[in-house]
Amino acid sequence: MREFFESYIVPYFNFWVYVILMMIGMFAMITKNNLIKKLIGMSIFQTAIILFYVSLGVKDGATIPIYFHEHKEESHAEGTSEDAHHKEEESSHESVGPGILTDAERKQAHLEAGDHTPHGEAAGHAVNPDEFTNPLPHVLMLTAIVVGVATLGVALAVCQLIYREFGTLEESEILTQIKQSNHG
Amino acid sequence: MIWQFDIIILIFLVITAVISLRVRDLLSASMIFGVYSFLICLLWAEMGAVDVAFTEAAVGAGVSAVFLIATVFNTNRRSSD
Amino acid sequence: MGMRILGFIAVFVTGALLTYGVADFPKWGDPHSPANAGEVSTYFIQNTKADTHVPNIVTAVLADYRGYDTMFETVVIFIAGVAIMAILRVLATIPPGHQPVQYDPRKKIAYDPIISVTCRLIVPVIQLFALYVVAHGHHSPGGGFQGGVILGASFILIAITSNLRSALRRFSEKRFIFIACAGALIYSGFGLTTLLFGRNFLDYGVLSKIMFDTDEVMARSHSMLGVEIGVMLTVTAIMFAIYANLSSRGALRGGL
């Protein structure tokens, strides 16, 4: 039972819930009588799709898609460079602790490592893509949310127009009134 | 990414979605929809999508609930289902 | 009742198909799934730092690599705002023989000094925070969309706590339409300027020629800020416009 739970339910739980939310939203859009309820169902449907996209971009053990602050990046670059490593070992008796350099030492090690690019950019130091969450779905969904609220606004404006015409937001009553006006 | 946390939020998400569609008072439905948006914002922060979470906190939990309430104020508060 | 059963059937068929699809999905959090190991997102993660010097990859992709997309998202928001104003302006004109809705004075919420004073104190803080979100979007979560929504929400807060008239006195209809247009024009203006220098639309690197003491990389970073400000202006104006129109049925007086 526990094995089944951990191999089938937990790894796919986001996807199961995305299916459930999509069904809830779709059911509300089809069967609810009130137009505002239909719109809430539409918003739930929309968030289900966004949930699907964002869940696809998750990587296990990855951090948020923002680079570390610059001086961390530098010390990381030094750690990979042999010259800087040598320098660090030489001066380790003066340092606060292993791996922690004072500012002057860091600057010197930086120069010795031959890193002369502006802004302290670690040239040739490739970022491991597994370290960061996939940013592409985030970008797509960020704009989708804001556009979604703008279109929700349009739908609500149309609802107000319908309410002035028919005096109700119930779909069945609106349909009866339309039928009566067609016969009359 | 903590899967226990993930599962708790997702369960609450389904519960709030169902309640906001079942409740007959449209003002309450709008407010519960705001709660739903806030929960999904928590979920995104937990999945590492910080920018999406920020947008959802501002848009979903803030502005879209206000738009719904503004419309409910100008139309009918009761719903038949 | 028949509709309900048909709805059930449609929903369950869709659900069954989606469940069938879920079984073939890559495992949760797999870094080598097709979506995650794709060429495009790997390029963004590896090269954003060298290309643009913006630590927040999402902002860089939003405003630079996919700038064309974001420009038209902004235009979609602008069009939505204009559409709402157009739809609700029909409501504001009273047709002959139609009784205008009288606002029930009992509906009015009594003036509450605590709420009023608290909001008067907190609105400047919210607006400052919104500007911070836009300006600091390169280094932390944030950007034009979020900052714009927060700035718009601060005006909505004024309208809710006092009344719509005093919010419109600060941010009148003429002004918010102007600002919404200005935001979209700032964004496309950046694109047109790059065209004038003979580059592609929204290829910001070339703007280092007119910016003071910048190389191509920093020019992209600075142009992103400019573009985000354009987005912020449009989103701020449209969010407040939507609220003002929805809450007052397009009449822009009375209201919530």
Characterize the overall form of chain B: flat
Uncertain segments of chain A? 72-103, 109-124
Q: Which range best describes the helical content of chain A: under 10%, 10-25%, 25-40%, 40-55%, 55-70% or over 70%?
A: 55-70%
Shape of chain A: elongated
**What's the CATH topology label of the largest domain in chain A?**
Helix Hairpins
CATH class of the largest domain in chain A: Mainly Alpha
SSE succession of chain B: HHH
Largest protein interface, residues of each chain: A-C, 58 and 67 residues
Assign a percent range to the helix content of chain B.
over 70%
Euclidean distance between termini CA atoms of chain B: 38 Å
Number of strands of chain A: 0
Oligomer category:
heterotrimer
Describe this entry's structure for a reader.
The complex is a heterotrimer of chains A (184), B (81) and C (256). Chain A is an all-alpha fold. In chain A, helix 5 (82-90) packs antiparallel against helix 6 (103-112). Chain A has helices spanning 2-9, 13-31, 35-56, 70-80, 82-90, 103-112, 135-166, 171-183. Chain A folds into 2 domains: 2-62 and 133-183, Helix Hairpins (Orthogonal Bundle); 70-126, no CATH class. Chain B has 81 residues and is an all-alpha fold. Chain B has one domain. Helices cover 83% and strands 0% of the residues of chain B. In chain B, helix 1 (3-22) packs antiparallel against helix 2 and helix 2 packs antiparallel against helix 3. The radius of gyration of chain B is 14 Å and the shape is flat. By secondary structure, chain C is mainly α. Chain C has helices spanning 2-22, 39-52, 57-65, 67-92, 113-135, 144-161, 164-170, 173-196, 216-247. Chain C has one domain (30-93, 105-247). The B-C interface holds B 1, 50-51, 53-55, 58-59, 62-63, 66-67, 69-71, 73-74 and C 29, 56, 58-59, 133, 141-143, 145-146, 149-150, 152-153, 156, 160, 239, 242-243, 246-247, 249, 255-256.
